[in-house]
Amino acid sequence: MAFARTTADWWRDAVIYEVYIRSFADGDGDGIGDIAGVRQRLPYLAGLGVDALWLTPWYPSPMADGGYDVADYRDIDPVFGTLEDARALVEEAHGHGLRVLVDIVPNHTSSAHPWFREALSGGPGSPARKRYIFRPGRGPGGELPPNDWKSVFGGPAWTRITEPDGSPGPWYLHLFAPEQPDLNWDDAEVRAEFESILRFWFDRSVDGVRIDVAHGLVKAPGLPDIGSLDGKLLEGAGDSDHPHWDREEVHEIFQGWRTVADAYDDPRAFVAEAWAGFPERLARYVRPDELHTAFNFDYLMAPWRADHLRRVVDESLTALGAVGAPATWVLSNHDVARHVSRYARPQPDGPVRSLADLRGPADLRLGTRRARAAALLTLALPGGAYLYQGEELGLWEVEDLPEELLQDPTWQRSGHTDRGRDGCRVPLPWSGDGPPFGFSSDGAGTPPWLPQPDAWKPLTAEAQDRDPSSMLNLYRSALALRRSHPALGDGTLTWDSAPDDPVLSFVRTPGFRCVANLSGDPVTLPAHSEVLLASEELEGGRLPGDTTVWLAL
Ligand code: NOJ
């Protein structure tokens, strides 16, 4: 192994690249990304300068939710490859100095998982049902759902089953799609199974695990109505006594997981997808005896506004620092509209959960300029960072996918009111002049599973490789500097701008200053010995608007 950072706490400042495997690179020409495609592109990822890869679920799955409906946690879906391919990928990634995190989905299985099939076929009273959350319906004939909980994807969170003899049965809980029944984490067998699954992957040299819906595993006793929270539930709405989000009892589960990870000589790390209403609640997931890191969704949802970003940075560093955990920073992932498109519109005062929170036409040039500035701001902050595949190419959200091609369950479950997340999942453009842009091997008969816009031609990795001022080369330069500069990565920062200043300026020691100009106008650069990197050309000694610069002091 040739890791850039071999310390036991590599995760404190790792830059981790999210590989949304269906859309990364297709090695076998079926139009769907796979392990072979990732293996072919490992030199690209190593050359980009990231420290680790997070691979979204690759397990056997009916793909009702892009693989977040897992039918077997110890195998690979044939569309992605085989267990042997996975082994080879981990080994080759390590050879390139890249660590590998897999995605574990503990809140729910697929309805095609053998446990759920057994629960259905076993009939009333089957002990197999205790692994899930079955309840009788309300109303005289049990024809109403057991409570008022809603699915994150729209509609009720309950589906009624039909018993093997054809009679109407109880209902089962699914906080996501009906094909994703929630597990019962009060059940000892469920708990033991997931610790065993962790060992299965750690034994295969995987360096870490991303935990899906970490805040959702435990439900309140008696499954009380939410009542006051009418309509579609927002994950992490902020209520710390919510009946199914962020309950205190989840922490003991993750303390057990930490014990599993710590039993390995090479340090294994967790990152939690935990939607907690406040930074202090999030920090509870990353206490010393619990998980290592958690995604910072407050940062992801922040509008491109200096005061808002500053507040999120300060609150994150304070809350996480209080428990000794590093912050992480993330701008995009496979669940949200790409940040080029979010920043392309007038920015609101509050958080941006989707493009629906924004008004006005998209100016993609402006969005791209801001995304460049945001990349340098993000990579200069103390802690770790997550990049979402394609952000290094400056990809934008594909907002005009034909309705008949939309695959995200959100589209159906919202009654065709929410187009869902497909627009950020369009397969990457690697090379060439038109679709499939090198996503599939040459001569592949099947087009990519979602169509790529022709307008991505200048954004292919190949085209950007040749252009010194491209987004790709900006990311490469920033990541190389970040790796070599002693001030960057884990540590602290000291602001030298005021909290309400539209210019964000901070110093890190030794000898580094980052200045992000979110005011509309150029500002004079502070004293420095050298300009290390800038997201746009500087205007003489001035820093233009929507530009970030890294200075040596
Ligand atoms: C979070 C994942 O990132 C998302 O893609 C998925 O739909 C839900 N969890 C449910 O597993």
UniProtKB/TrEMBL annotation:
Gene3D superfamilies: Glycosidases (3.20.20.80), Oligo-1,6-glucosidase, Domain 2 (3.90.400.10). Residues 18-425 form the Glycosyl hydrolase family 13 catalytic domain. GO terms for biological process: oligosaccharide catabolic process. Belongs to the glycosyl hydrolase 13 family. Pfam families: Alpha-amylase. This is Alpha-glucosidase. One of its GO terms (molecular function) is alpha-amylase activity. PANTHER family: ALPHA-AMYLASE FAMILY MEMBER, NEUTRAL AND BASIC AMINO ACID TRANSPORT PROTEIN RBAT.
